[in-house]
């Protein structure tokens, strides 16, 4: 391969050789040489004056050899290029070889070229000089020698050519070999290039792979680093754990050593205890025997208790029957009379009627002044029945037209008369039996009747202290207490309460929401159950007696709102607190109950003031007040009418009872009719100023007291 460029670089020389190839032909070479010689001569002749003599003279012995020499001189460079033949050159050479210079016939050109020479000679010949002949001969000789030389040259050239041909053949062979080598080399090169490309690709792939591997390795290293850090952290934690464990172990060792000591102590104690245990075991055996004896006794006692419980339940039934018989014997309408004490406020109100005007106002309760003033203000009331407390005697003195003092004494008898110093507890003691009836399933109704300021509200609601608590809180408390007691007799009770006000024949819910009740309430009686419901009123489930206090407070606040709007309304309206009780006999401690159900209600009514309509007041402009009073009187007289009708019904049998004549009587229909127990508490003012009103009230109460209402019925349902 390395030889190839060298071959190519020899081309110019080869071209040169080709240009000289012609002259290298024997004929042509000779002609050329001749021409050269002639040209040289002509040139020389040109340089010099054209004289033939001058030619001979200048080069007399000069053979044509110099031309050949000149050729040789020029061709002296030839042998070297001939060693580097090329194919085309070979062709020319072949052509040159195919026309050997041995041909005797000179080429046309030689002839042509010879023409000038001939001309020169012919030009010289006309001179026909002997020198010319000589010269011609010389030239002939020269020519012969030249031709000989030429032949020799041709021979030599032929040899050279042969040698050259051999060289060419050799070179061709070389060339072929080299071509093959070149082809092989090229294919090798191609293969190598392919391999190189392949190798480059592989290298590239390997680089990529390497990069990937490096990246993987770096990631791996980072992962390992992380793991290493984690492991280090774990190791640190493990070390700290280990440290703690060591501490724990050392503390445990300490504990173990302590416990070993303790164990020794305990073992000793254990032995002691075992000894004690043995002793105790014998005691236990003794006790076990005692226990089994006691169990037998207990079983028999339990049987006795069960028998007693059954007996108690039976006796409860008997008690209730007897209790109600007593109540019936007492009458289903009973009347209590209660006279309130003289209050310090009375002294102020009626100071004008006192003989020592103004002195009483400064006296406090219990003081001498107060007692004196009290005496003066008090009406003449006497309570002769000190044993049964059933009588009240009212004495009044008036002047007759003749000026004589006329004394009148009124005797009234009631189921119970309470003197001014009687306490709330004493009053309730008499009432509590009725509350008991309520839990037995009876409808109970307690009225407080009397003129304004006679103590109705005090009796029913009472004061803020426990001792001054009125009938409503006490009755509720009693009902709860009885209900609790009745649990031991197999009864379970549910209680709920409502608080209504009847003002100007309109029902207002005192436990309702909002400041003022604007709803229209209707009264509904259930003939089957004997119960009464009022629509759209708040019925509060009662779970404890203390709840009643808050209910009374709510009712009081609503009444006071109304009072500010409507002028002392509390004394101008009836308030009805209703406690409904429903009970069922579920039995006790495995003793199956009877399933008996009862529903009772306790109505505690604070009636409006019963004073008569003042004539002068009636003529006044306060029509609203007149209307109030008329309504109060109407409802109170309706109450009297109902009670009277009930009494007449008891006597005669059939009788229409005018319950619908007032809202009050219609509301209390079920509590006034035959299947209820009614109590009227007549509240009296002790003041002489109120004597006439007191007498009116006493007469009304007597009328009620004389009424006998049919036997009360228990509201019982058997499920
Ligand atoms: N037995 C009593 N012991 C002590 N104070 C009493 C007694 N009865 C009534 N009072 C007092 O007399 C005043 C009037 O009583 P109360 O308001 O109860 O009368 P009332 O008949 O309800 O009047 P009204 O019809 O206007 O409501 C009150 O201050 C009350 O505390």
Please give a structural write-up.
By secondary structure, the protein is of the alpha+beta class. Among the domains are: 3-189, no CATH class; 422-710, 3-Layer(aba) Sandwich (Kinesin), CATH 3.40.850. The protein has helices at 3-9, 11-24, 26-47, 52-58, 65-75, 79-82, 87-98, 108-124, 130-330, 344-349, 359-362, 368-377, 424-439, 456-460, 471-487, 546-566, 615-618, 623-652, 663-667, 669-672, 691-705; strands at residues 333-339, 380-382, 391-399, 405-413, 416-418, 443-450, 491-503, 506-509, 523-526, 531-534, 540-542, 574-585, 587-588, 591-592, 596-606, 676-684, 716-718. The strands form 4 sheets. Strands 1, 5, 6, 7, 8, 11, 12, 15, 16 and 17 form a 10-stranded mixed beta sheet that branches. A 3-stranded antiparallel beta sheet has the order 2-3-4, with helices on one face. Strands 9-10 form a two-stranded antiparallel sheet. A hairpin with a 2-residue loop joins strand 13 and strand 14 (591-592). It is elongated. The site of adenosine-5'-triphosphate has 15 residues, from helix 14.
Task: From the structure above, extract its key features.
single chain; 719 residues; alpha+beta; 10-stranded mixed β-sheet; 3-stranded antiparallel β-sheet; disordered N terminus; binds adenosine-5'-triphosphate
Q: What's the helix and strand layout?
A:
Blueprint: H1 3-9, H2 11-24, H3 26-47, H4 52-58, H5 65-75, H6 79-82, H7 87-98, H8 108-124, H9 130-330, E1 333-339, H10 344-349, H11 359-362, H12 368-377, E2 380-382, E3 391-399, E4 405-413, E5 416-418, H13 424-439, E6 443-450, H14 456-460, H15 471-487, E7 491-503, E8 506-509, E9 523-526, E10 531-534, E11 540-542, H16 546-566, E12 574-585, E13 587-588, E14 591-592, E15 596-606, H17 615-618, H18 623-652, H19 663-667, H20 669-672, E16 676-684, H21 691-705, E17 716-718
Parallel strand pairs: 1-5, 1-16, 6-15, 6-16
Antiparallel strand pairs: 2-3, 3-4, 7-8, 7-11, 7-12, 9-10, 12-15, 13-14, 15-17
Helix pairs in contact: 2-7, 3-5, 3-8, 7-9, 13-15
The structure holds adenosine-5'-triphosphate.
Residues 340-341, 343, 450, 452-458, 570-571, 609, 683 line the site of adenosine-5'-triphosphate (ATP).
Biased composition (Polar residues): 64-74
Region (Disordered): 1-136
Protein name: Kinesin-like protein
């Amino acid at each position: 391969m390395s030889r190839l460029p060298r071959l190519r670089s020899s081309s110019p020389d080869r071209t040169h050789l080709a240009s000289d190839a012609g002259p290298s032909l024997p004929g042509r070479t000779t002609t050329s040489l001749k021409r050269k010689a002639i040209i040289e001569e002509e040139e020389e002749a040109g340089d010099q004056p054209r004289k033939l003599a001058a030619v001979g003279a200048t080069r007399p012995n000069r053979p044509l050899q110099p031309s050949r020499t000149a050729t040789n001189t020029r061709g002296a460079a030839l042998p070297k290029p001939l060693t580097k033949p090329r194919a085309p050159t070979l062709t020319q050479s072949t052509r040159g070889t195919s026309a050997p210079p041995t041909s005797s016939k000179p080429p046309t050109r030689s002839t042509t070229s010879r023409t000038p020479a001939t001309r020169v000679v012919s030009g010289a010949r006309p001179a026909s000089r002997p020198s010319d002949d000589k010269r011609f001969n010389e030239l002939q000789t020269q020519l012969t020698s030249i031709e000989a030389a030429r032949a020799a040259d041709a021979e030599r050239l032929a040899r050279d050519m042969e040698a050259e041909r051999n060289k060419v053949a050799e070179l061709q062979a070389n060339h072929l070999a080299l071509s093959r080598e070149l082809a092989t080399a090229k294919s090798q090169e191609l293969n190598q290039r392919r391999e190189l490309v392949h190798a480059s690709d592989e290298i590239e792939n390997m680089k990529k792979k390497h990069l990937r591997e490096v990246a993987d390795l770096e990631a791996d290293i980072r992962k390992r680093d992380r793991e290493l850090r984690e492991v280090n952290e774990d190791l640190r934690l493990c070390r700290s754990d280990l440290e703690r464990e060591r501490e724990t172990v050392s503390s445990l060792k300490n504990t173990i050593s302590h416990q070993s000591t303790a164990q020794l102590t305990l073992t000793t104690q254990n032995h002691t205890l075992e000894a004690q245990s043995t002793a105790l075991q014998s005691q236990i055996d003794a006790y076990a025997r005692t226990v089994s004896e006691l169990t037998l006794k207990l079983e028999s006692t339990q049987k006795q208790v069960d028998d007693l419980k059954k007996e108690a339940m039976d006796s409860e039934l008997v008690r209730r029957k007897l209790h109600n018989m007593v109540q019936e014997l007492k009458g289903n309408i009973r009347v209590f009379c209660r006279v309130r004490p003289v209050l310090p406020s009375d002294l102020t109100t009626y100071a004008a009627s006192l003989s020592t005007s103004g002195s009483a106002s400064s006296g406090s309760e219990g003081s001498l002044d107060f007692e004196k003033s009290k005496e003066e203000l008090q009406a003449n009331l006497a309570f002769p029945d000190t044993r049964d407390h059933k009588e009240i005697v009212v004495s009044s003195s008036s002047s007759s037209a003749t000026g004589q003092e006329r004394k009148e004494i009124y005797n009234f008898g009631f189921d119970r008369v309470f003197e001014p110093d009687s306490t709330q507890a004493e009053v309730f003691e008499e009432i509590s039996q009725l509350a008991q009836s309520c839990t037995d399933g009876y409808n109970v109704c307690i009225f407080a009747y009397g003129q304004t300021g006679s103590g109705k509200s005090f009796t029913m609601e009472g004061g803020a202290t426990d001792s001054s608590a009125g009938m409503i809180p006490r009755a509720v408390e009693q009902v709860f207490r009885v209900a609790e007691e009745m649990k031991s007799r197999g009864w379970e009770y549910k209680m709920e309460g409502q608080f209504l006000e009847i003002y100007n024949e309109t029902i207002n819910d005192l436990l309702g929401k909002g400041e003022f009740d604007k709803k229209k309430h209707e009264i509904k009686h259930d003939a089957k159950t004997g119960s009464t419901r009022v629509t759209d009123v708040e019925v509060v489930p009662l779970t404890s007696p203390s709840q009643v206090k808050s209910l009374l407070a709510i009712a009081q606040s609503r009444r006071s709102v109304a009072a500010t709007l409507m002028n002392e309304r509390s004394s101008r309206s009836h308030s009805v607190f209703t406690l409904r009780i429903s009970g069922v006999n579920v039995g006790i401690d495995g003793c199956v109950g009877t399933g008996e159900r009862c529903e009772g209600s306790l109505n505690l009514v604070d009636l409006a003031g019963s004073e008569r309509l003042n004539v002068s007041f009636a003529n006044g402009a306060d029509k609203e007040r007149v209307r109030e009073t008329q309504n109060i009187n109407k409802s109170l007289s309706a109450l009297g009418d109902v009670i009277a009708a009930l009494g007449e019904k008891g006597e005669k049998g059939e009788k229409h009872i005018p319950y619908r004549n007032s809202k009050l009587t219609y509301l209390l229909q079920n509590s006034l009719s035959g299947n209820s127990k009614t109590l009227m508490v007549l509240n009296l003012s002790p003041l002489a100023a109120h004597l006439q009103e007191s007498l009116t009230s006493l007469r009304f109460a007597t009328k009620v007291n004389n009424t006998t209402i049919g036997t009360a019925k228990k509201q019982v349902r058997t499920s």
